[in-house]
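Memo to structure team: turn this sequence into structure tokens by end of day. - J.P.
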Amino acid sequence: MPLKEGTPAPDFSLPDQNGDMHSLAQYRGRKVVLYFYPRDNTPGCTKQACGFAERNSRFKELDTVILGVSRDSAASHLRFQEKFSLPFTLLSDPELAAHRAYDVIQPKKTPQGIREGTLRSAFLIDENGILVKALPGVKAADNPEEMLELVKGLA
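Reply from structure team:
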């Protein structure tokens, strides 16, 4: 079932690139940009992550946390973060619990057949944990600026 804007965003508990646990609840009082991406170190995912990194200081000025989520391991996230000097948290969701809660899993055709894949999506969550905007199927290159403009609209 798709998430409804104006309702509480689903909470989660996921490890970051260093193995530290994060939940949405711990970010109450701050806005959160939560984005789901398919894989570390792929062209689109790198472009999106670097776009968020370039705008990180502007998000911080607006008291907004960026959290990237994929099914990759914490070790993969750490390599990805270090390689591109990403100044924000990457969360590992190999069991796809948060992916399912945010309805970002879709069947995808691969040479091996149909398998579950991540629909590149982004969510803006306000200081009270309410889902302000859900953007399924975003474009990697455009999403960081798109999210920054949405956050500015809340300021």
